[in-house]
Design goal:
Strand content: 15-25%
Helix content: 40-55%
Strand order of the largest sheet: 3-2-1-4-5-7-6
Number of helices: 9
Radius of gyration: 17 Å
Number of strands: 7
Length: 244
């Protein structure tokens, strides 16, 4: 499930599960939504993914292929799951999230700051890698985001981005569609905020075709961008190296 990340805008508005906002409206709605669901966000994630999200993050960090001591920014860091795993692997994590509520709900301390994923408070080429978990569809635009990754990651640095996906097998795709579209909103509504977990499955519509997304990354400066499906295709891992 995604954590908050988008271009900045002031204010916040309740999420409308029957409306997919755009521009500044989307930013405000997404930030407000994640502020709302922050207190039970981790619990809902574990329940809805049957803890598979833990393994997905570990696979993403392995895909970075960076040596211990590498500085890695986790974007849409939420309550710090990725950052804690990065630290456990010997990396130096820096967490950034648009939602202050998510950062404040972190059960354990980690280096973090509220920041816009499209305008990171980092110098050019200053970090070794980037991770991002299930937030691509919460961004207003992907191309500026990929350009920002290319700006802050040093040449030869790595990125690993997780996002939801659809299984290629038609039977599995049907079952996943029922679970994601029908079961997730019910479970999320019982454990957290009903409107938010009705909206999140619908937000998949924001994602471009995978081929188009990889082309965007390659144009931004990640020529070897590739995509791998995880857990029979319900999740995807996009990894790439910053061109030298």
């Amino acid at each position: 499930m995604p954590a908050a990340a988008a271009s900045s805008a002031s204010g916040g508005v309740p999420i409308d599960a029957d409306h997919l906002p755009a521009g500044d409206e989307k930013v405000a709605a997404v930030r407000s939504m994640f502020d709302t669901i922050a207190p039970r966000y981790d619990l809902v994630n574990r329940v809805m993914t049957f803890r598979m999200d833990v393994g997905w993050r570990r696979q993403a960090i392995s895909a970075l292929g960076l040596v211990p001591g590498s500085v890695v920014a986790d974007l849409a860091c939420g309550t710090g799951d990725f950052c804690h795993e990065l630290a456990r692997r010997g990396h130096v994590p820096l967490g950034f999230d648009l939602s202050f509520g998510m950062l404040a709900a972190a059960p354990r301390p980690f280096p973090r700051a509220q920041a816009d994923a499209l305008r990171l408070p980092l110098a050019d080429g200053s970090i070794d890698g980037v991770t991002c978990g299930f937030a691509l569809r919460n961004l207003v635009e992907l191309e500026p985001f990929f350009a920002e990754l290319a700006r802050v990651v040093r040449p030869g640095g790595r990125i690993a981005l997780l996002e939801v996906a659809e299984p290629p097998n038609p039977v599995l795709r049907f079952g996943h569609g029922v679970y994601f579209g029908k079961v997730v909103p019910v479970v999320g509504g019982l454990l957290s905020d009903k409107a938010a977990y009705r909206y999140l499955p619908k937000s998949v519509a924001y994602l471009p075709d995978p081929t188009e997304m990889l082309d965007m990354l390659r144009r931004a400066g990640f020529a070897d961008a590739k995509r791998r499906l995880l857990s029979v295709g319900i999740s995807q891992l996009i990894s790439a190296t910053r061109d030298r």
